Amino acid sequence: MTSSSPSSSPASSSTVPATDHPRSLWPVVLCWLAVALEGYDLVVLGAVIPTLVRTHALGFTEASATSAATIGLVGVGIGAVAIGPLADRFGRRTTLIGSIALFSVLTLAMAAAPNSTLFIALRFLAGLGLGACLPTALAFMSEHARAGRSGTAMTRMMTGYHAGAVLTALLALYLIPHLGWRSMFVIGGIAGLLTVPVMWAKLPESRTYTETVATERVRPSEVVRGRLLRVSLGLWAASFCGLLLVYGLNTWLPTIMGAAGYSLDAGLGLLLTLNVGAVLGLVLAGRISDARGTKPTVLAWFGVAAVMLALLSIRMENTLLVYGAVLAAGIFVFSAQVLVYAFVSQLYPARIRGTALGMSAGVGRFGAIAGPFLGGALLTAGIAYPWGFYAFAAAALIALLALLTVPSKPQPAPEA
């Protein structure tokens, strides 16, 4: 790898030199905050949809609300795929700041939308910025982490997503009844815009990027060239299945548990337990992957996730057993997906790492659309319980089999 000085790098003309504070806490804090903002903005629509449909605000119906949610996720997927080459060409810092500014402005504009059509269009455009945020933050954090600690760094950063999601739910309980649904988008947009100047002042460029800065345009096709084709296909399949599980379970777990005979209150409590397990799993997975290796850890995580999801198909009379099984599912399901991102960051050369993470996250976002669709289809057919859990367990098993085809060691850069 050839190094270049910051002064000669095109990515460093407006950045804080990475060598000044190579282990500064600012990147850790700011990347965590960026992911928390994304968590807030991705969950806020789900928090306000019941109010939009019930009050017919902006002319919303159940069908148009579903369109808003789906089209927003399509925007997220497109944004994730498109941002990788830009992050590899222009740097992690500028790309991350730009993505936050984009989705914050558009989220704020959604509060002033006069009708559902413009609201949905703004949600799609905001999704482009939201999709760009996560892979860029992941690339930055994987490069900022100390050697051998990238798993821990990335999983800890991802706890920000759940913090943002929890904050959305708590604010919605108070703000929507007292200030209306628009206040949720106002707060999310303003929070993002206040973060932008802090990032501009305190976020340095990734040191790895400045030392391997691209001198020519990075093409998405580079991640499927030569031996990287097998790597990419395996990781994309795992990412698709991983986010299918995350979004499918978060959307339908209370409903499926209700179909199994559990009460509505129990279903909501189990959903909270699932996400508590997600945070615990993120902390645990990072430590183990750094100590034992990312590939064996992510294989074990998807394997245990498949077993725990299959066990949930069994009707349990003991309440503690039910909550324990859901907690375990949360521990392994959610962090398995983050371990896939950590694996991506380790296998690709730094020059195309942003592109690789963007492609993996983008393909995964289409799994995020497929998960709720799959659960809804099974529910409509009247077989959500137990077949919903069988389907989710099968997705975890497919991810495991896909990752078995991926090598454990970093791969060389593709030939031009």
What is the structure about, briefly put?
With 416 residues, this protein is an all-alpha fold.
Which structural class do you get from the secondary structure elements? mainly alpha
For this structure, the CATH topology of the largest domain is Growth Hormone, Chain: A
What does the largest sheet look like? none
Average pLDDT: 81
Shape: globular
Number of domains: 2
Radius of gyration: 21 Å
Give the key terms:
416 residues; mainly alpha; Growth Hormone, Chain: A; 2 domains; 77% helix; 0% strand; disordered N terminus; carboxylic acid transmembrane transporter activity; transmembrane helix
Characterization of this structure:
The protein contains 13 helices and no strands. It is an all-alpha fold and 416 residues long. It has two domains: 21-211, Growth Hormone, Chain: A (Up-down Bundle); 221-404, MFS general substrate transporter like domains (Growth Hormone, Chain: A). It is globular, with a radius of gyration of 21 Å.
List the helices and strands and how they pair.
Blueprint: H1 25-55, H2 62-90, H3 92-110, H4 116-144, H5 150-179, H6 182-202, H7 207-211, H8 228-259, H9 264-292, H10 294-311, H11 319-347, H12 353-380, H13 384-404
Helix pairs in contact: 1-2, 1-3, 1-4, 1-5, 1-6, 2-3, 2-4, 2-12, 3-4, 3-6, 4-5, 4-11, 4-12, 5-9, 5-11, 8-9, 8-11, 8-12, 8-13, 9-10, 9-11, 10-11, 10-13, 12-13
Pfam families: MFS_1
GO molecular function, one term: carboxylic acid transmembrane transporter activity
Protein name: Aromatic acid/H+ symport family MFS transporter
